[in-house]
Design brief:
The chain is an alpha/beta fold. It has a single domain, classed as Divalent-metal-dependent TIM barrel enzymes (TIM Barrel, Alpha-Beta Barrel). It has 14 helices and 10 strands. It has an 8-stranded parallel β-barrel, surrounded by 6 helices. A two-stranded antiparallel sheet has the order 5-7. α1 runs antiparallel to α9, α2 packs across α9 and α10 runs antiparallel to α11. The radius of gyration is 21 Å and the shape is globular. The relative contact order is 0.15. The protein binds alpha-D-psicofuranose (PSV) and manganese (II) ion (2 copies). Alpha-D-psicofuranose (PSV) binds next to loops.
Length: 389
């Protein structure tokens, strides 16, 4: 059995969390999307906001794109624009859930023409990835049905497998297809990729360049997510995370806000399974929306939460834990685990930051930076971006 032991400082130095471009746009519920002064009108402005998060935290060197929301004429220019601001372009998220033709599905649709349109969209995403040097094509599908009998469950899986295989053929060297699962919504009866097992089955069939994307918000209440993390890492099929937190369903709230202990347990399994080791290709990403709170500080808070729980998880005395586990000392094992969780690592993190020329308190540094006032004054006119546009 391989157990990965780590030095907390090397873990902190290795931690990189990709930010989703859409986190900087307006979002909300079907009841209301609130606009906020300073919200980006363009992908360039979203990247500038993401770069600000990275500048203050040292934690977020990449920005994920969503196509077609973040479509530009020249991706090479966008790549160098990002590089000039100190960040790179990361995961490309496909979108086959907004057009009328996808009402009854995209990669699973019964109509071959619609399936081909959806496949072609993914091929375009792969081309963009090649232009910007991005590793991951993230596929999240809204495909599913609402009523028993509405669709042929088995036939939909067969068409999905066929469509994914057509896309996978074009996944180049150094690229991956990561298949995200979600148990429900927008479909309320059958979701075509509802769970890690389905995503695992399809990605195993595809091959080594395909892996599972685990979005922490996409599970039924009570699901033991750290078990899934442990299992997928063990199988070599955990490709990436979409971090967020949820109270009810797919809330996309700030990661670590709803249940910091769950985040700690997940990160413990990530470290245990080698997910933060130097040779790991596990990609960590946020997938969040900020409906009522300020967006840039919301993203800063999010990456800090991941960093804080990562350090706490790295503090677990694994040698003592193994000894307690092997002697059947249940309470000692649990106590060792909880000791790490209850450790206040904030002073240690502040000095880690200062040692790297970063502000000790990035939230305060943002508030005092004047950046918010500047974008509110400058970003006048135009159309603010939002989730879904
Ligand atoms: C919808 O649930 C979703 O939040 C998925 O998690 C995707 O990753 C994201 O939208 C962007 O497509
Ligand atoms: Mn997601
Ligand atoms: Mn989601």
């Amino acid at each position: 059995m391989t157990t990965h032991t780590v030095r907390p400082d090397s873990i902190l130095d290795a931690l990189a969390i990709e930010l989703p471009s859409w986190a900087f746009g307006n979002s909300g519920t079907r009841f209301k999307v609130f606009g906020t002064p300073g919200t980006p009108r363009t992908i360039q402005e979203k990247i500038a906001d993401a770069a600000t998060v990275h500048r203050l935290t040292g934690l977020a060197p990449a920005v994920a794109l969503h196509i077609p929301w973040d479509t530009v004429d020249s991706y090479t220019e966008l790549k160098s624009y990002a590089a000039d601001l100190g960040v790179r372009l990361g995961t490309v998220n496909s979108n086959t859930f907004q057009d009328d033709e996808y009402k009854f599905g995209s990669l699973t649709h019964t109509d071959k023409t619609v399936r081909q349109r959806a496949i072609d969209h993914h091929l375009r995403c792969l081309e963009i990835m090649t232009e910007i040097g991005s590793q991951d094509l993230k596929v999240w599908l809204a495909d599913g049905t609402n009523y028993p009998g509405q669709g042929d469950i088995r036939g939909r899986q067969d068409r999905l497998a066929e469509s994914l295989a057509a896309i996978y053929q074009h996944v180049g060297e150094g690229q991956r297809l990561v298949l995200e699962y979600k148990f429900f919504e927008p479909a309320f009866y059958v979701t075509d990729v509802p769970d890690w097992g389905t995503s695992y089955a399809h990605t195993v069939a595809l091959g080594d360049r395909a892996a599972v994307c685990l979005d922490t918000g996409h599970h039924a209440p009570g699901t033991n997510i750290e078990f899934i993390v442990a299992q997928l890492l063990r199988l070599g099929k955990l490709g990436s995370f979409d971090f967020n937190s949820r109270f009810y369903a797919d809330d996309d709230l700030i990661v670590g806000a709803a249940d910091p202990f769950q985040l700690f347990r997940i990160l413990f399994e990530v470290i245990r399974g080698g997910g933060l080791a130097p040779d790991s290709d596990l990609a960590l990403m946020l997938d969040q929306c900020h409906n009522v709170e300020a967006k840039i500080p919301g993203q800063i808070r999010s990456v800090l939460n991941v960093q804080e729980m990562t350090l706490r998880a790295a503090l677990v005395d694994t040698a003592a834990l193994t000894a307690a586990q092997e002697t059947g000392d249940v309470l000692a094992a649990n106590g060792i685990f909880m000791d790490a969780f209850y450790t206040d690592v904030r002073p240690q993190l502040a000095s880690w930051r200062e040692g790297r020329g970063l502000p000790a308190d990035p939230m305060r540094a943002y508030a005092e930076s004047g950046y918010q006032e500047k974008i509110e004054a400058e970003r006048v006119g135009g159309t603010q971006t939002s989730w879904g546009a």
